[in-house]
Design a protein that fits this description.
The protein has 15 helices and 9 strands. It is of the alpha+beta class.
């Protein structure tokens, strides 16, 4: 019995000796693991598709010990998801987080000809481990999905949270009160200026909620703004030593044949006004044609009324839907509804009726209704201009007003034809 106890005691002592020998190595290995990690922020420039015009951002974690590099993406979606377009229309679009190999992602962005810049973060080993754990948790099935918002919760915001975690809250604390450079609308127009139609229609649908001043933190819905802020950011580490957040900037790929993102948003309304005046000149020519050849001018003007009614009426109907039936809050409080709304769709059948009127009386009645419709548009534009005198109704929609005002004035108040119409109405009334 004593021999058994002695053997048992020896085994315990040997066990403690082994643990005592291996424990420092295990602690050392755990410590070295953080040293083997490299944290990078990957910023990709705009792509060809509209939903890629504002760029993209992701997290790269390299593990030297495993020879592994993983790309954490917080902007995953698929057009093939159930009810994708319905959810998008109503403002209930769900995005996901995911992870894949960095090399495959970089190759894909190069294939699609997009700028790629990697920003290596200078962080102590324990912070790199903390970010790795955060990233791994973020891709779990119960955590990976989130309700997308263009300006309040997109692919950039998880990255901002990660940077804030790495700096113990110093990143958000610094930029949460710093005034931003531009409003949301101005930032949007920096990226859409090269496409006149999409620039106009996107900004037409967005209301006064995106014309308020922003903080630098709020501006970081754009990946490029995140990149600009982290490049020169310095934080205080756990030893109270100032430390630059970014230790290295690696330009992987640069695009040369894509319209640049403007440093300062340009004023678009002069271009819209010139375009509208040109269209108004064509309309004047059509009215002159009608005075020389009533039949040809009637058909041409009827088609014009229908086309303008269809275009602006559809834009107004979409805006009415966004404001009243969706969660797209950036479209709310939109003064454009004063002059461009579903009522304009009435110009489509009226224009057809005007073009096909077989008698003078039918044409005269239709012309009166069309002129009244476009006069309401002109008056609505004037109202939307006047209410800007009150700060609570300020909206940067001069581009929309300048596009529609000359057209509405010509179609409602073209002098020669209006004079003839009024003379005929008075003559019939006095008979």
């Amino acid at each position: 019995m004593d021999a058994i106890k002695k053997r048992f005691a020896v085994c315990i002592l040997l066990g403690f000796a082994v643990i005592w020998t291996l424990l420092p190595q295990a602690v050392s290995a755990q410590t070295r693991w953080g040293d083997d990690l490299t944290i990078k922020i990957a910023v990709m420039g705009p792509g060809n598709e509209l939903y890629f015009w504002w760029g993209h951002i992701g997290l790269v974690i390299e593990d030297a010990r495993l020879g592994d590099s993983r790309f954490y993406d917080y902007g995953l979606f698929s057009f093939e998801n159930d009810s994708f377009f319905v959810n998008f229309a109503f403002g209930r679009l769900w995005y996901s987080s995911g992870v894949s190999t960095t090399s495959s992602n970089i190759a894909a962005y190069i294939f699609y000809n997009r700028d790629i810049v990697l920003y290596t973060l200078d962080l102590p080993p324990e912070k790199r481990e903390e970010i790795w754990r955060y990233a791994e948790r973020s891709i779990l099935p119960e955590n990976r999905d989130y309700l997308y918002h263009n300006f309040k919760h997109n692919c950039a915001y998880p990255i901002i949270d990660i940077i804030d975690l790495a700096t113990d809250g110093q990143f958000k604390e610094m930029f949460a009160t710093e005034p931003g450079r531009f409003t949301i609308r101005q930032h949007v127009r920096r990226h859409t200026w090269f496409s006149p139609f999409l620039d106009w229609i996107l900004n037409f649908w967005m209301g006064q909620n995106i014309d308020v001043p922003m903080t630098a933190l709020e501006e970081m819905f754009l990946p490029s703004e995140v990149a600009a802020r982290i490049t020169n950011f310095t934080y205080i580490d756990s030893n109270d030593v100032p430390r630059p957040l970014v230790s290295e900037v690696e330009v992987v790929h640069l695009v040369e044949d894509r319209p640049p993102v403007l440093d300062i948003p340009r004023k678009q309304w002069p271009y819209q006004l010139v375009f509208s005046l040109f269209i108004s000149l064509i309309l004047g020519c059509l009215f002159f044609l009608q005075s020389k050849s009533a039949a040809h001018g009637q058909v041409a003007l009827g088609i014009v009324h229908s086309l303008f009614g269809l275009f602006f009426g559809t834009a107004g109907l979409t805006l009415f839907f966004l404001v009243n039936f969706t969660s797209h809050d950036y479209a709310f409080n939109n003064a454009n509804l004063f002059f461009c709304n579903p009522l304009l769709l009435a110009a489509f059948p009226l224009g057809i009726r005007y073009a096909t009127s077989s008698t003078y009386t039918k044409r005269l009645r239709t012309e009166c209704m069309l002129r009244l419709l476009w006069l309401l548009v002109a008056l609505g534009i004037l109202v939307s201009m006047v209410i800007k005198l009150f700060p609570s109704f300020w909206q940067q929609n001069l581009t929309d007003q300048m596009l529609m005002l000359p057209i509405a004035l010509v179609l409602s108040l073209e002098p020669a034809s209006l004079k003839r119409m009024m003379q005929r109405i008075l003559w019939r009334w006095m008979r």
